[in-house]
Design a protein that fits this description.
Jelly Rolls; 11 helices; two-stranded antiparallel sheet; eleven-stranded antiparallel sheet; 2 domains
Amino acid sequence: MAVLIAAGLPTQLMHRAAFTQDECAAIVSLFVDHLEVARDARTIPNLPRMPADYSVARTNRFDADGALMRSGRLDWVYERILGLASQQLWTEPGEAPAAAEAFHAHVEFNLLHEFQQHDQFGWHVDTKPADGHDRTLNINLMLSSAARGEYTGGALQVGATNVSADAGDLYLYPASEPHVVHPLSSGLRRTLVIALKEPASAASAQGGGGAVSAEASEPLAERRRRYWSETRARFEALAGGALAHEPKLHMLFGEFLEASGDAERAKAAFCASYRAAGADAAAAYAAQFLSDAEEAAGVEEALPALLKAGELIQMADCIVPGDAEVAAASERVTNRILAVVAAGRAKQEL
């Protein structure tokens, strides 16, 4: 069975003019004729105290149960992809699926994105550690043409790369890479999204019941380890470089670190998200955390409440290090915690 690369992918791959204008129109017709349209408009939760501006607004035609794929109507699309990208997707090109039907097992889903005026998809990732999925790569096929005036705005940005894709261009990137579709100014922008998954899922899809042999599990685990290691390295490069100013990038990095089990580093990333909003906003956030700390501490000398207040003050101190008001609040709460602990010990000694 072919082994889909989950690590070592050259970060992003572009194949220009992979499909003709007529072929793009045929793909659109397949989805429009066979799948229902569904509006997806929602606000994704942001960090505490941050404005709710992390949003999604788009229209989907989603092959949720894979019926369109199983019908074989998309096989010619898969065959084109295999012809163009097999050497980039498989560790051993000779083991890549020889036919589109074998490629089905590597497809998690097919989706037609439709963005209209003011639609957007804020910064997000499509997979993170321990999310219960085996998603690895996104394949995007642009079906509309900004060059022909079919839409304006709506640019795809993957990491620090602004993807200038025209109709027929095929673009591949890791599903763990932070990306955004900027607001559409006018027109209609359509994109085919093919989500690819790991061989463990592929084995299940081929009737293996999800079981993976001992021989296969070790290489799979190593690929996943490399995949997340490379994801972390890309996050670190973006957070310290081209996207250091983007609060959502730091938030996503924090969520990645939390999912990876690195809670302390996650807190630092969340703190960086507040700081990236600018000096004035950061000061306001810190003041809000101080207010939350005072409310949490209350008037009773309850240790859990005081510890919670201490955590909130630590975040304020991280956002505006060296602030005198934060330092004074930290000292007050610390002294109260020490007093409560000392009182508890005294009671035990009696």
